[in-house]
């Protein structure tokens, strides 16, 4: 069931059945300016929100396939632009067409539009799961992106066979990640996620980074569970830490509290460089 409401920025339809567990109940928002994306946002558009551009597993052209997880992220006070419309399909195309970049390009043209005044274009992260992580890696080269979230993927030794990859087949590895990057992997069976572990080791000196493995669920994770399951918990803490400097979220990563949820192989470096309020 969806209920219409008038938002400052958008005429929207927000699900009342799954609104996330964060401070700001959220859901999917319809915006005709983004026909190639699915937008997740807090209902309360008086809140100034940072932006996450997101790539789906398989680089599938459907932004609704991880709705439980992304609604949980949005409920932390984040507007998410997920690649692909809810009714879309077909793998690989969102990587070829670089829909993350397209979302930010559109937002740049709307910078002076009062309907989008609640979006903070100075706080942008790129994230994605599996093939979507390759899209996030590509965006590591975009100066508008201040943070990267690699979920079950890495640029090192990435399997690009059969994928219409942009930039002449180039997907940067961790040596090109010059912004704080968090790697969420699925243990030894998660081969793409272990590429992320290689990226972690390659990152430039001094750049904040975190790496952890949730081995019990492998590559597929818990994204389809209510509120994204365990990945929803770590994802929520990630955005609260990097975007808002939330003290409890910072301690979740800096004090090893993810281990209490079953995460292992945890490594971190330079996290003290991220501001905490």
Automatic annotation (TrEMBL):
Residues 1-18 form the signal peptide. The keyword Signal applies. It comes from the Eukaryota. Keywords: Signal. Coiled coil: none annotated. The keyword Signal applies. This is Alpha/beta-hydrolase. It comes from Microthyrium microscopicum.
């Amino acid at each position: 069931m969806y209920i219409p409401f008038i938002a400052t920025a958008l005429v929207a339809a927000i699900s009342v059945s799954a609104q996330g567990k964060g401070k700001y109940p959220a859901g999917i928002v319809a915006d005709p300016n983004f026909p190639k994306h699915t937008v997740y946002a807090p209902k309360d558009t008086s809140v100034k929100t940072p932006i996450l551009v997101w790539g789906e597993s398989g680089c599938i052209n459907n932004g609704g396939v991880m709705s439980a997880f992304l609604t949980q992220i949005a409920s932390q006070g984040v507007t998410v632009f997920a690649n692909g419309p809810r009714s879309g399909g077909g793998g690989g195309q969102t990587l070829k067409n670089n829909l993350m970049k397209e979302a930010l390009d559109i937002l740049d043209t709307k910078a002076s539009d009062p309907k989008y005044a609640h979006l903070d274009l100075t706080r942008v992260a790129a994230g994605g799961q599996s093939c979507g992580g390759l899209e996030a890696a590509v965006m590591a080269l975009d100066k508008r992106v201040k943070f990267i979230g690699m979920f079950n993927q890495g640029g090192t030794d990435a399997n690009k066979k059969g994928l219409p990859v942009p930039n002449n087949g180039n997907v940067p590895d961790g040596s090109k990640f010059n912004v704080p990057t968090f790697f969420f992997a699925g243990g030894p069976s998660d081969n793409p996620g272990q590429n992320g572990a290689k990226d972690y080791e390659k990152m430039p000196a001094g750049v904040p980074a975190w790496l952890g493995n949730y081995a019990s669920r492998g590559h597929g994770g818990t994204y389809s569970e209510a509120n994204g399951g365990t990945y929803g918990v770590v994802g929520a803490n990630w955005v609260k830490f990097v975007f808002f400097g939330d003290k409890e979220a910072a301690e979740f990563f800096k004090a090893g509290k993810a281990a209490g949820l079953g995460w292992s192989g945890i490594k971190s470096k330079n996290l003290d460089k991220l501001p905490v309020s």
